[in-house]
Amino acid sequence: MATVIGKEQLCSTDLKYFKSVQGIDGKTLFDRYKLAESNIINNYIDPKYRDFLAYPVKEGGIITFHGKTYNETPRILSDLQGDDLAKYQNIKAETLAHFNKEIDSLKKSDKTVEAEFLAAATKYVDDRFVYCYDDKVVLGVWGMQLRDNVRADISEICKILIERKKEIQSEPEILVIDGSQLEEQSVSPFTVRFNAGEGGSLYGATEYAKYNGDIVAESEVPQVNAKEGYEFTGWDRNPNNYTVAGNTKFTAQYCEIQPVVTLPWWKGCLNWLLLLLLLALIFIMLWCCLLKNCKSNDCGCGCDENTEIVIPPPVIPTPVTPPTPNKPVKKFNDIKIETTKKGYDNISEILNMLDIKHNAFSGKFKCDMLFINCGTSDNINADLLKKYVENGGIVYASDMASGIIYRSFPNTLVFGSSDKTGKIKATVIDAELKEYLGNIIDVNFDLGGWRMINEVIKGKVILLSNDNNLPIMVEIPIGKGKVYYTSFHNSGQTTGNEKKLLQLLVLKQFAFLNNMTIQEIADINGVDLNNLKYK
Fold this sequence. Notes:
Number of domains: 3
Structural class: alpha+beta
Strand order of the largest sheet: 23-22-24-25-32-31-30-27-28
Strand content: 25-35%
Shape: elongated
CATH superfamily of the largest domain: Class I glutamine amidotransferase (GATase) domain
Number of strands: 32
Radius of gyration: 34 Å
CATH topology of the largest domain: Rossmann fold
């Protein structure tokens, strides 16, 4: 394998996995790179960003990409989280902005070839091929686009060739006491445990190793699922932002929900009848007393025994018209819905089953609901998506749309991936959906490489995989709106029952928008929920 001076291998890939390989005058960009590096990149690109395009070495159908020699071990952008993700996303945005600025400048200067090369090279930027290290980003695979429906795992498509840097081991600290040197003793961490108690179960990590003075973050506290007949009331002491000073255990507390006793209908009617008879008896007794007093001429009302007593007609209260609700109910076609271009998923098929009108994604976020298909080719701005949901928008996203969900809402879900295919059993956690689906359903994953939810930092689990006890469908409240994310999606292999599940999830989003139940939103739109029950 060829060696490139001043650079180290990042990854290699086979051209068979890619399409739209960019080229100029009959030659690929890879064939022209060496000349372009000296005549274009080094002449027009700022030194800070010149290493963005990895150096390609093409041998037959295999291309090995090299990046500038690194001090830190390079990491893939799509695998980053938290502050590191935000940092390198900003660096990537700055780098692309600089390239686009130079491309526009070259076009205005009639340097067409130079502009075309840079534009074609940066046309496809996939975060799974962006390497982050030493405060820079390097595009490991560029100038071509991954083919649709590639079943191979990303680790097979792009083989990582990074040599991991050894971590520098710090010397043990030496303490000097009375002139003698003592090596500092290693400090063992304390254990922080969460106990579910007898009224429920926990979802998430239940045990952490913490050192003295460490804080238990709110995101580390597991979600409590109360058993039927119990309600979670809190922990025996508040674990949020708790300062660790020793081994600690937090136990969930519950109160028992008293069952509501409902009388048979005939007993209810009998009770009402007895009450009416009692009221009638009291009325007759009072009336008899009034007549007796009047006829004795001692009542002081000025009447005698021949005076006719006029009984005024009963006063019938004027019915009160209930006030008109401030927020009118929105039916299906009163709600503006947009869907992205289909990829591995096509949610439009589910919307069509419910006769719900929808339009193509405009990019302006001028809608009530936005459905993001798995593997869509639409470009979605993460900042605008975040503001859209915070202001009351509803987003449905599936599988490989996890990237835009993580970039827009980084402190909600932690994603991984799975190559498992076929049917799995899933437990329905959501009480409202359970009414129509039952406790356990089958879900089919027709392709490997689907995005798995490793952890729910914020949100509520809707479906839980029985295979690995991890969620596959969640609901996340964000500001005034909500995000519904599912690892499972609509595809050509989706069964009838699975389509019912997705239709119910769509109805649940409409119900949230109108502050209604699924049954209520179905009734006003003429949807027969009996046809959507799991069979």
